[in-house]
Amino acid sequence: MIAAQELQTDFHYSHEADTQLSSDTDLEDPESRNAKPGKGKKGKKAPSEKVKGAGVRAQGRVNGHHQENGTENLSLFEIVKLGKSATQSVVDDWIESYKSERDMALLELINFFIQCSGCKGAVSSEMFRHMQNSEIIRKMTEEFDEDSGDYPLTMSGPVWKKFKWGFCEFIVVLVRQCQYSIIYDEYMMDTVISLLTGLSDSQVRAFRHTSTLAAMKLMTALVNVALNLSINMDNTQRQYEAERSKSLGKRANDRLELLLQKRKELQENQDEIENMMNAIFKGVFVHRYRDAIAEIRAICIEEIGVWMKMYSDAFLNDSYLKYVGWTMHDKQGEVRLKCLTALQGLYHNRELNTRLELFTSRFKDRIVSMALDKEYDVAVQAIKLLTLILQSSDEVLTAEDCESVYHLVYSAHRPIAMASGEFLYKKLFSHRGPEEDGLPRRGRQCRNANLIKTTVFFFLESELHEHGAYLVDSMWECGADLLKDWETMISLLLDETFPGEEALTDRQETALIEIMLCAVRQACECHPPIGRGTGKRVMTAKEKKTQLDDRTKITEIFAVALPLLLTKYSVDAEKVTNLLQLPQYFDLEIYTTGRLEKHLEALLRQIREVVEKHTDTDVLEACSMTFHALCNEEFTIFNRVDIARSQLLDEQVDKFHRLLEDFLQEGEEQDEDDAYQVSSTLKRITAFHNAHDLTKWDLFTSNYKLLNTGLQNGDMPEQIVIHALQCTHYVILWNLAKVSEGTSKKAFTILCDALMIFSHQIVASGREVLEPLVFSPDSSLQSDLLNFILDHVFIDQDDDNSTDGQQDDEACKIEALHKRRNLLAAYCKLIIYNVVEMNTGADIFKQYMRYYNDYGDIIKETMSKTRQIDKIQCAKTLILSLQQLFNEMLSELGCNFDRSSSSFCGIKELARRFSLTFGLDQLKTREAIAMLHKDGIEFAFKEPSPQGEGGPPLNLAFLDILSEFSSKLLRQDRKTVHMYLERFMTFQMSLQREDCWLPLISYRNSLQAGADDDTLSVISGVSRGSARSKKNKMASTGKRRLPEGVFESSCSSSDAGAWMTREQGVQQTPVMMSSPHMTSTVLRDAKKLRPDEGYVGVYTMSNDPQHTPLQQTTQVAWMVTQRQQEERANLQNAKMRSHMQHAIRRSAGLMEDDEEPIVEDVMMSSEQRLEDLNEGMDFDTMDIDLPPSKNRRERSELKPDYFDPASIMDDSSSGLSLSFFFFFFFFF
């Protein structure tokens, strides 16, 4: 027995002596550390021993690793990680090696725990012999690599999940296989427990987590051993008592001695096991159940629940339960959840309830409060635990405790509601008294009648009447039989009360009808109400059969009872509205097969009477929907229902025309009663026109006359106007539904115009009063509009039949094309003005190449406008169009298509055209291009390889298309995109060189090209390689011209000679010298430096005589030359400024930071915007301190034309002073 008071304060194992066990053990313990196994029984040798690399043979070992024929075998860690060998075979092999050379086997086991913690180090035999556990742990801590923070127990993926299971199983099997001998040798368990205890106290999380899990699993295995020993001791004691009770003549003294000796040995073994468990409990559990890491705390609580359930005699007491109770207040939901699941295993066993009474009384309030836990999973398990407590004793939970759970049946979270519904059902409906045994199964006096009444009372007391569907759904799994007892519900509504019974009130009858309707809907639809669940799930065959049976039963019951219910409650609008919804769930075929036509006639008469009695909108719409459900042409009852509907509508329309004529003749003296009659009749017609086509009654003319009269007189009652407008609206919709194909194009244009008129633009310019008229098309309408465009616009000339066979006429072809262009323009206008989603334009943009001659200008303008609205969304739409074309190509050609095929080349050419539309301003399109690459990379790696593991992803070839946009990336963004690409790549992918991997290789090359250098030179506008050519050309001779006006005044013929003379002088001006600590990286191109230039200072002056002609010119020539010198100084300033920035960027101290992009990761958020672009640069000193993420192209000094050398200059004071310095230099 283990009790908290028996825990020893200090526990030390003795290594000095080994215990000699009896010969009845399966594996006999060796007598000393290096002794060979005795003659006792041995376990069977596993087949895995014959396999090379099994890892647990008794060959030579080095640092715990196996050596066989000079080849290193797998370690225990690798074997468990692979999971290909049976755990018991691995353990048996280790036991054999332990019996032959236990020091090396134990060393291997120690390294197993070290490696399972993620430590790269290993314990050597020298360390094992001469170092204490604390020293070994300290040494392993020093060798632990904590940079990544990941270790096997926390790594994701199926391999590591399987490893965790294998790790726990290995420990359990190890103890089970050693339970008869080795665990009592005071050596193996001593070492393992000491090691795990030391590791569990480590500051390294990986050591602490892994060792705690191992210690807890070891403890669980020892508890199982202790339980078996306890059972064997009881059996031995009974055998001993039975033998002693025999008479002296029949008693076998030898057997008594054997039983006495066996009981003694079992007692000694149990004492040893208890000492081991006490050591683990006090050395590991007591400290780690309140560890800072939630996973470690959860492990401790989960395992103590297993101990209490497995060996309740020893562990199920308050000394151990208190740890679970305390931990229920843990801050982490994961730990609280483990507490509840542990307690559920205990409360589920009714025999243990008496031992839990004190714990229940102490921690009941906490469990009740956890039903409202912020973690849904915790709340669900808390409610389930309360249900188990409720089943164990009705007196434990008070009424207040139960009420705190009752209201959760209306929770929007379905698992909580289902658990609460089960609690409610167990509390209110599961008790059966002896007086209920003789009650009938059906009818008003059956047992379910009282339960249904209880449900109604509960529903009314909750004061949440509109949530009847939620209550039914919560109780559906546990109380479906009760909720499906529709006969009893009908009996409670129709039958007379028996003597002594209290009748239902009107409010209770209304609630019962609502619950009945909700139960019918739940049985027929088989999915939770709105707000619960994530969508429809696929039903099983059994569920489908149950659904059909329930629907048949509903039809047979309510086809007879519904007319009677309508007769009784025909004047109650709320009851009638719910009752009239029942026919929507009928199986109409049963009216014929069950010979229920007379009940159908009675139902139709009742509906007609309801329409005549009521003017409530809900009632009338319910009647309309009932006729709509019954008027199904697939069933034989259609003719009867259609005749009844026509007769009803004929009467109402004739009445409306008669009343309208009298009402309009009254003029200004309109009677209120006549107005009410017109309004109510029109309201009935409108309710039916919503679900039925009433165009044959020509209601448009009457409504137009009514509305026109109201406009002229201005005194028409508001309700009449509203119903007339609504009825006219339905008339238009029904006529639009009948529009033929010949007029569909005109209707499409009208619809597009209407959507534009009633879009969000209608409230512009201070017209907020019109906001109720704003209409946004839903996804279904948007899809219909797009499909119309695809079917009627993007077609070949021969497929267009709109010209009635006159396609041979060229003029007709042009006219048809003009009409199609108008249709496309109407839809594109919806995209541009954000009436439809921008991503719907993907189906339009992908037609750009194929229909370039017909619609290229429209599509290109649409792309331009959408880019102005939202650059990022436009880029996502473009890449979506390419993805759609790529998927279409895959479905047509298969996954093994040829990248030289016309389809793939066409997609790539389209990508190139899309790339050109982004223009040359890379800063403006920076985020859009980055997001385009992000979506493209995700699409390329989205689908796995059809060839299995190791093959290229299905969409990998899309990277070849995506590479067309690489040139639009800035230098630093290329590196960011490349890093994002590497997230999806494995190490093996980077080594592949086969043809199927060429798209990945080419895309990576496109990202790496220019990643170290600027792609464009801000001075010359061409690549740095061409700008800094061997000829050392001036900026004026580059590929891009300088802006007009820079040299405009200096290019006349009168001063051309002066310009050329000054140009030659400028070429000899020394460049700026780099600071001393940057001399190794002054300029990338050494040819920019002249060897004869001296570095006297930062700036030097030239005494070249070529400057002297400036002093001999006339006054006009001097002024012209002065302007030329100043402008040339600006150009030279830009040049030296570029050199300065380049030298700084290439310096060792700033290179790393300068390579980073401005934003942290443009792939992470499309909403980030470039900031901090308004910094100036001051060249007054060489101590330049640039912000870490800036480079020359991203500074605010750059004008919109990045190819303009003069645009590098700004108007700041520093730049102006530098320009003045150069002007002064040139002048003198």
UniProtKB/TrEMBL annotation:
<keyword id="KW-0131">Cell cycle</keyword>
<feature type="coiled-coil region">
    <location>
        <begin position="249"/>
        <end position="279"/>
    </location>
</feature>
<dbReference type="GO" id="GO:0051301">
    <property type="term" value="P:cell division"/>
</dbReference>
<feature type="domain" description="SCD">
    <location>
        <begin position="285"/>
        <end position="370"/>
    </location>
</feature>
<dbReference type="GO" id="GO:0007062">
    <property type="term" value="P:sister chromatid cohesion"/>
</dbReference>
<dbReference type="InterPro" id="IPR039662">
    <property type="entry name" value="Cohesin_Scc3/SA"/>
</dbReference>
<dbReference type="Pfam" id="PF08514">
    <property type="entry name" value="STAG"/>
</dbReference>
<dbReference type="GO" id="GO:0003682">
    <property type="term" value="F:chromatin binding"/>
</dbReference>
<dbReference type="GO" id="GO:0000785">
    <property type="term" value="C:chromatin"/>
</dbReference>
<feature type="region of interest" description="Disordered">
    <location>
        <begin position="1"/>
        <end position="68"/>
    </location>
</feature>
<keyword id="KW-0175">Coiled coil</keyword>
<feature type="compositionally biased region" description="Basic residues">
    <location>
        <begin position="36"/>
        <end position="45"/>
    </location>
</feature>
<comment type="subunit">
    <text>Part of the cohesin complex which is composed of a heterodimer between a SMC1 protein (SMC1A or SMC1B) and SMC3, which are attached via their hinge domain, and RAD21 which link them at their heads, and one STAG protein.</text>
</comment>
<keyword id="KW-0539">Nucleus</keyword>
<dbReference type="GO" id="GO:0005634">
    <property type="term" value="C:nucleus"/>
</dbReference>
<dbReference type="Pfam" id="PF21581">
    <property type="entry name" value="SCD"/>
</dbReference>
<feature type="region of interest" description="Disordered">
    <location>
        <begin position="1027"/>
        <end position="1049"/>
    </location>
</feature>
<dbReference type="Pfam" id="PF24571">
    <property type="entry name" value="HEAT_SCC3-SA"/>
</dbReference>
<keyword id="KW-0132">Cell division</keyword>
<dbReference type="GO" id="GO:0007059">
    <property type="term" value="P:chromosome segregation"/>
</dbReference>
<dbReference type="InterPro" id="IPR056396">
    <property type="entry name" value="HEAT_SCC3-SA"/>
</dbReference>
<dbReference type="InterPro" id="IPR013721">
    <property type="entry name" value="STAG"/>
</dbReference>
<protein>
    <recommendedName>
        <fullName>Cohesin subunit SA</fullName>
    </recommendedName>
</protein>
<comment type="similarity">
    <text>Belongs to the SCC3 family.</text>
</comment>
<dbReference type="InterPro" id="IPR016024">
    <property type="entry name" value="ARM-type_fold"/>
</dbReference>
<dbReference type="GO" id="GO:0008278">
    <property type="term" value="C:cohesin complex"/>
</dbReference>
<keyword id="KW-0159">Chromosome partition</keyword>
<keyword id="KW-0158">Chromosome</keyword>
<feature type="region of interest" description="Disordered">
    <location>
        <begin position="1178"/>
        <end position="1197"/>
    </location>
</feature>
<dbReference type="InterPro" id="IPR020839">
    <property type="entry name" value="SCD"/>
</dbReference>
<comment type="function">
    <text>Component of cohesin complex, a complex required for the cohesion of sister chromatids after DNA replication. The cohesin complex apparently forms a large proteinaceous ring within which sister chromatids can be trapped. At anaphase, the complex is cleaved and dissociates from chromatin, allowing sister chromatids to segregate.</text>
</comment>
<dbReference type="GO" id="GO:0000775">
    <property type="term" value="C:chromosome, centromeric region"/>
</dbReference>
